[in-house]
């Protein structure tokens, strides 16, 4: 018996080694990559020579509050928790697929008392009507993976697990970037609020002064109404900023997995520096972004699926065996004379299925074509996002320089008009116009600063979060 088992195991090993695979040779879809990013302006630093942005990429903004909020993404965000559960499910499916690579072992035992019908077919006088049937048996089965069905199933499952892991990294990076962008918007609104509070205070003092001049008969009612309207408009803008800040704070609360009713961020007006983001060559982008890696892995899984579909055209060959004891009574059941065993191969081939297997092969090939197209689309979208945000940073930087000059000029005009008004050289209309222009340019400059910070966040996200010149792949992780 032992010799037969050893021979069976040797046959399994030889058959596995001799097996083939019908999956096509895997080659990722080719997507042309430009030698350089078109929108990189003259301000762009040289290519990085070492780690520039760490895994916690948001630390380039050097804000402890942002650091704490980003850490909550990993532990409390429900969207990320759902992605982690899907990753765990993919790993479990892979475990199921790997079962096919191993022999199936089992054992059963039964102790029964049976009665046959008096009118059974072929009834013989020597056959008892009531008898016992007791069996103890162990067996094994193993599919000889000659055509690669099982191995391709495992390869497809492994690729799906890797894709799910990359999806998890992509969702994490997306949530981190969304949080950072919302945080920049919140701090921009804090600075807008600070500006408007100062403006309301200045306008209120001016309105009080003009009211006293009106009472003294120095100015007309037109100037008092104009001053009052200017003050009311500034207060309305302040209320609008407060409403926008509340909505932004609520959005951040949801991202960090906290009820908006119990979440507050203390206002702060410390400005951020625009981080300098060095760029590598475009080819490293393809290796770095988790969504691109996920699309490539799904393409590999679809390629293995073609092999699975092709293997269905060939017979499924199994090697099986069993051994045990059988008797009509429990006493003496385990004796040598009651030994039973069987061993041998079996094959199953579907000769006619109405075209089902051909249809499944066509579906597998279509899934490969779809996965390849999705991969190319993901790569092209990645390059677009990098170019978009490089253009934003470049041109918003030029716009910010011009707007800052406008702020300086408007502030100078405001000071001169106030001096001239105090001396009675001009009417309040000139002061009103200068102050309105100064406020508009200051708010525009603050808005541009926020937009540039958000563009920096989007660029870091488009480049995969963290990188270095020798970086070989993978996304930033918190």
From TrEMBL:
Provide the alphabetized UniProt keywords. Lipoprotein, Membrane, Palmitate, Signal, Transmembrane, Transmembrane beta strand
Q: Which InterPro entries match?
A: MdtP/NodT-like, OMP_efflux
Q: How does it sit in the membrane?
A: Lipid-anchor
Subcellular compartments = Cell membrane
Stretch list, region Disordered:
110-129
* The keyword Signal is annotated on this UniProt entry: yes
Check the UniProt entry and state the signal peptide residues, or none: 1-23
Coarse class of the primary localization is membrane
On the tree of life, the source organism's domain of life is Bacteria
Family classification: Belongs to the outer membrane factor (OMF) (TC 1.B.17) family.
Check the record and name the NCBIfam families matching this protein: outer_NodT
This chain belongs to which protein, by name? Efflux transporter outer membrane subunit
Q: Which organism is it from?
A: Sphingomonas echinoides
